[in-house]
Amino acid sequence: MGGNVETVGNDNLPSMEEVVISVKEVSKRYRIGVADERKDTLAGQIGQLLLSPFKNFKRLIQLKNFKDTDASNVSWALKNVNFEVNRGEVLGIIGHNGAGKSTLLKILSRITEPTEGEIQIKGRVSSLLEVGTGFHPELSGRENVYMNGTILGMTKKEIDAKFDEIVEFSGIGKYLDTPVKFYSSGMKVRLAFSVAAHLEPEILIIDEVLAVGDAEFQNKCLGKMNEVANSGRTVLFVSHNIAAVKSLCSRSIVLKGGMKIFDGLTKDGIDNYLDSSAENVGNENVNNGFRLSRLTFRSLTNSEIFYVNDNFVITGNIEGDFPSDNLTLLVLFKTVFGVRALNLSTRLHGVEIKGLDKVLNFKVTGQTLNLMPSVYYLEIKVLRMNGEPIVSFDNAFRLNIEPSSDFLPILLPSYEDRGVLYKRVSFLINQD
Amino acid sequence: MENNDTVTIKPTSGWKALNFRELWRYKDLLYFLTLRSIKAKYAQSVLGVGWAIIQPLVLTLVFTVIFGNLAKIGSDGIPYLLFSFTAMVPWNYFQNILTESTGSLISNREMISKVYFPRLVLPLSAIFSKMIDFGIGFLVLIGLLFYYQVVPDVEFIYIPFFLLLLIITSIGIGLILSAMAVQFRDINYAMSFMVRLIMYSAPVVYPLSLIPDHYKFVYALNPLVAVIEGFRASVIPTAVIPWTIIYPGILVSICLLIMGLFYFRKMEKHFADIA
């Protein structure tokens, strides 16, 4: 854990400041579906049914034709975005869901057109918005490498030259001529990523590809990304994984509501992003047939704000078909960089969970967490006795620990320098 | 691989010309897409490519019984089976290209929304992947010629020409329909029904001689008439290629292709948003 958190110095300063991507006033408008009004009577509904072809036609036509007058059902996924990227630069793009990151990448990779504005790109672009595009289950691994590679813009010759390397990296070796439908999902992802990792464009656009595979493979991917980033190629990188962005990119832009709200050092960008976020991670969470609800985290004094020294109480409710054997409940606190900072486990506390009937209610109380004021995410897990997970709710709750009144620094260090543990000490400074 | 071209991305409007250079750069993708649909189609089936023989052959047998024997539709003096199978081979290819290319954008929408490539390769790959079926059908046709001891005359050399006309026609219509199908799924639902209708508009199960002379000009505007009749006349020695019927078809066919290409290019930019 945490293997991907160290800062990697991006000393690949472009030898000459040549702008390879220039984005000017780019906007993109989408139509959002408008619900039809429904008639309550049978006759009304039949009438609607008869008229529906006309309405459908109108609706389908509108999918691509916009009139500026109907502002109610269009939304701007991007609005007047401007930035430039120099050759060899690794630019991170940070933002919450719906901030416009994916739309921006789709425009940059020419999948969709902007509604307004202009972009100039110098050099060959490859974009990885998803690994394994075009994989066909009936084809063998070998054939899928060629299929996927050519979709990503490589020629057969280029793939031939890299083929052995790709297979080696994926580690699927002897299954190369087996149809992909017999692969495990992990093998598929590994093969797909290997193809993607061996693209050699001048500009590489990457979206969330690290969100696949197990932790070990993710680290391998990150390593490969680092290699690409340090080889002097221009990279645009979008991720929710702040640690990954931080380790790869020296400069980042932050998007919010389709607009660029920050452009500068990644370190400051992350602060900006985390400070600006009002996103509350779901109150209700369904996963694997289990439902997590009524999850609360608050201070025992019941105040709205949770201060660093507060005593805490976490309550929640998980419904689902639990197995009858002994279970462990885990409440993990993760930092914004994905490091698990604190582990509250029923097992370590000698608490037995046994013979559950569909519902697991829990309440965890304790004194100060000793965690540094910052943003944390709660991860709730239920495990079998042997550690095998039954259900896991990642980012189930976002909590903000605030510096208390006796905590002097008004200005906290950046998230990066903040550390994880909170400790009151006495300093003795010798002053001549 | 050094490519210092500057690409400008901005909103486009109106009609766009075809970018042949780009299309050429993606020829390997076209190749592998073709391979994919051939392999995927017959994977895990017992008869495999045998289906390419069975389908048109059984259909021809049914036609022979119903139209040839029961309804006694004339076949210009050649055995009805041979008569209708010579039309069935190009017809089947037409129908395959049309169906495959029309559905190609929707069935690959994942790809379209994740990667940029010239969208044209998707419908185009239908031409090549269905060529196998055509080739097999053609071999069966040769076999039938031997069986009936029919020796084609010199007009046989026109077959590649009519094959080309067939491809132009089917891809022209296919491009228009595939681009429309992205927005209106009705096209997909109507497809199998439409294909059956179109078959009766061309001389597949009946001879051209059945059409009254004063309607022939209108009839000839259907490019499939030119394709089917031309193909049949090239194979059957007793028939002479009726060029007066074929010229209007060629003209319409080329118009369809040009329309299809431009319409497809115009609609292309919306595919990722609405597919």
In short:
The complex is a heterodimer of chains A (432) and B (275). Chain A is α/β, with parallel strands linked by helices.
Q: How would you sum up this structure, described in words?
A:
The complex is a heterodimer of chains A (432) and B (275). With 432 residues, chain A is α/β, with parallel strands linked by helices. Chain A contains eight helices and 18 strands. Chain A is globular, with a radius of gyration of 25 Å. Chain B is an all-alpha fold and 275 residues long. Chain B is globular, with a radius of gyration of 20 Å. Chain B is built from 13 helices and one strand. Classes of the chains: A alpha/beta (432), B mainly alpha (275). The A-B interface holds A 30, 60-61, 63-64, 106-125, 127, 129-130, 133-134, 136, 138-139, 143, 146-147, 150-156, 158, 179, 200, 202 and B 1, 3-12, 25-26, 28-29, 31-33, 35-36, 39-40, 43-44, 108, 110-117, 183-184, 269-270, 272-274. Strand 4 (116-122) of chain A pairs antiparallel with strand 1 (6-9) of chain B, so a sheet runs across the interface.
Topology overview:
The complex is a heterodimer of chains A (432) and B (275).
Chain A: E1 19-31, H1 42-62, E2 74-86, E3 90-94, H2 101-108, E4 116-122, E5 125-128, H3 141-151, H4 156-170, H5 185-197, E6 203-207, H6 215-230, E7 234-238, H7 242-248, E8 251-256, E9 259-265, H8 266-276, E10 285-287, E11 290-299, E12 306-307, E13 312-319, E14 327-335, E15 340-345, E16 359-366, E17 375-384, E18 389-402
Parallel strand pairs in A: 3-7, 3-8, 5-6, 6-7, 12-18
Antiparallel strand pairs in A: 1-2, 1-4, 8-9, 10-11, 11-13, 13-16, 14-15, 14-17, 17-18
Helix pairs in contact in A: 3-4, 3-5, 4-5
Chain B: E1 6-9, H1 20-25, H2 27-42, H3 51-70, H4 80-107, H5 109-114, H6 121-129, H7 131-147, H8 159-183, H9 186-201, H10 216-220, H11 223-235, H12 243-267, H13 271-274
